[in-house]
Design a protein that fits this description.
Layout: E1 2-4, H1 7-10, H2 13-22, H3 32-44, E2 53-57, E3 75-80, H4 83-93, H5 101-111, H6 117-127, E4 128-133, E5 152-158, H7 168-179, E6 182-194, E7 198-201, E8 204-207, H8 213-222, E9 225-231, H9 236-241, E10 246-254
Parallel strand pairs: 1-8, 2-3, 2-5, 3-4, 5-6
Antiparallel strand pairs: 6-10, 7-8, 9-10
Helix pairs in contact: 3-5
The structure holds S-adenosylmethionine (SAM).
């Protein structure tokens, strides 16, 4: 199996959606998509006033990282590095395709939302405004066009920042690059994986950075954040069988 860092040529959105979201199982059995949704639900279903504008970094071909947030936020901008993923997001926004139904249903169940799926999906669509090409490794993150006012109340990012480079220094640079778009007092919601340097999608192994939990937390503190919540209740047995140490969620406030 080939190892790669070439997202443009080798990241297949359809294979990704199939392997992570169309096959969603149960949280207890260590399903990653369920862990991500449970964690986002915990973070956004709280007393915190999150504000109005959200930027999602490295959305991939999915809106999974903004589903819970969309219940609290009025305007969402999605981003990714890979043109094929951006095309999937644009097709979704234009109503030419739907998000994986299982994913929407799962989040609705968590939220106790009994409307029909299409109504809920239209609601999320109406909140998504811009879809932007970005590169988190460069100081000028927005590549082709820049949002009118690139300052956000909330930034989310799921399973992305540890994948944009292969070193701790590269991780720190990406954190610095993307966190400048967050207003002072704003919230960063991060989902990631601890001590895993690669993951498989279809025929490719994508290489990223293996980071210890303390390295991740220290990086965010160094960049002026106060960590308010660190959620790491990914089932231990599942973590062993999947050969990863753990997935985590973090809520941090920019001071
Ligand atoms: C594992 S996927 C995560 C997708 C989605 N956020 C999720 O939670 O399922 C990693 C994403 O990071 C994106 N990515 C890779 N390099 C990047 C870079 N330099 N800047 C921004 N995003 C990047 C990829 O295109 C891919 O969509």
């Amino acid at each position: 199996m080939a190892e790669t860092r070439d997202y443009v040529s080798h990241f297949d959105p359809e294979v990704y959606l199939k392997s992570l979201y169309e096959s969603m199982g149960s949280y207890e059995k260590g399903d990653i998509a369920c862990f991500l949704q449970n964690t986002l639900h915990k973070i956004f279903n709280s007393e915190i006033q999150f504000g109005e504008k959200l930027l999602d970094i490295g959305s991939g071909p999915t809106i999974q990282s903004v589903l819970s947030a969309s219940r609290r936020i009025t305007r969402i901008d999605l981003t990714d590095f890979t043109p094929k993923n951006l095309q999937v997001l644009r097709d979704w926004k234009d109503g030419k395709r739907n998000e994986v139904e299982k994913l929407i249903r799962y989040e609705m169940k968590l939220a106790g939302d009994s409307r029909n799926v299409s109504e809920r999906e239209s609601e999320v669509r109406s909140k998504v405004h811009g879809i932007y090409r970005i590169d988190a490794t460069t100081e000028q993150v927005f590549k082709e066009s820049i949002p009118d006012d690139p300052q956000y109340d909330v930034i989310t990012s799921s399973l992305c920042l540890e994948d944009v480079s292969t070193t701790l220094a590269g991780y720190k640079t990406a954190v610095r690059n993307v966190s400048k778009y967050l207003k002072k007092g704003g919230y960063f919601v991060l989902l990631g994986v601890i001590e895993e340097s690669k993951y498989r999608i279809g025929d490719y192994i994508f290489l990223g950075t293996s980071l210890k939990a303390e390295e991740i937390r220290a990086t965010w503190r160094e960049h002026g954040f106060k960590i308010l919540q660190w959620i790491s209740d990914y089932p231990e047995d599942a973590a062993e069988s999947k050969d990863v140490d753990n997935f985590f969620g973090m809520l941090a406030k920019k001071e």
